[in-house]
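Box 3.1. Reading complex inputs
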Amino acid sequence: MKYIDEYRNPDLVRSLLDAVSSLAAGIGREVSLMEICGTHTHAIGRYGIRRLLPKNLRLISGPGCPVCVTSVADVDRALYLTGLPDVMFATFGDMLRVPGTGGESLQRLRASGADVRIISSAADAVRFAVENPVRQVVLMGIGFETTAPTVAAAVLSARRRCVGNFSVFSVHKTVPQAIRALIEDRLLKIDGFICPGHVSIITGVEAYRMIPQAGRAAVITGFEPADIAEGILMILRQVAEGRFEVDIQYARGVKEQGNPRARDVMAEVFEPSDADWRGLGVIPGSGLRIRREYEGFDALRRFALPEIRSVEFKGCRCGEILRGVMSPDECNLFMKTCKPANPAGPCMVSGEGTCAAYYKYEKK
Amino acid sequence: MSIDEDNFAVIDISGSRREISLDIVDESVTVGDYVICHAGYAIQRIDEEVALEKLSFLKELIDNEIY
């Protein structure tokens, strides 16, 4: 396959990590970096990068798994919508097993007869609506800046084609506001951020300006081992020199200006709103809700949702793990009652979740 | 491999084919281009030159032990 093999060359990765070690030794003190994106967490586990790093360099996993940061209240709302008569609920697959209050999940509802469809593209949901005119298709809009434009594009295409039985339940969130909250978290002292590759393809560098402004390093990094090793090296250089800026390691994917067209599509359909993040709480302006002009496509306006009393699963520490103040092996449930086959919380469910990554790659 | 009138393209991913939408990609994409895809949508055309240039630059630095 083109590109990928070259970025997995072991000699290249080893040389980069040697350079990381000597630079870290020069800095001396403990340096903490956060990888925000769940895909990075998995790549770091998969390639065993954590074990190859010097002792004074700590990698903390951040809140970059969309399913994981979805609040239990939003999960319960999704479950309620799924249970409505005539609703066909379309969702990306990793949402299926996320437990809501009382352990209920989309998978269980589906087993008892609810119409839940797994999609791999928001466009699929519009197609379902066209093919099933008597059903109400509700698409769960979940994800960060990479996915939100695709859902917005689906709304625009539904409007263009006059599809009246399609709506979106949006729990989309935006990354920069969450980073700001992490910078302000006093329990966390992060020297640098491994910024997500694919989110940045859309946002460009502008979204991360507040990181260097707060005196922390920021490097937009790709997902292959050579990318990650080089991203870490570039962060350490900024830390060593005390010169903070937003660097791009992932130049083959990310352009400085991002993808303005995708941002325009997103802004056409969505506007910023407050959002409740699991672990981080309500962050002002960090969510995306459907604009009034498109309210016909907003599931929250189309269907009357009752007040739901949502309760987190007792003992689950997903919240702390998402904030980066706790690592999975410090949780009492991890690998005991909480396993991928029977997950207690979303961090173990999702392929991008921190606990799932630690279970798969880093268990001792 | 092909692009239809609704702006959907069929792409080849290591031998498997998939239909993706070109609705939010920033540049014009033609048959033969490389794209980064996410959730059924092309989100970026890959600049082939940058990728190759960067890789050879990294190798060059390592060969010269500049790191």
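In summary: The mean pLDDT of chain A is 92.
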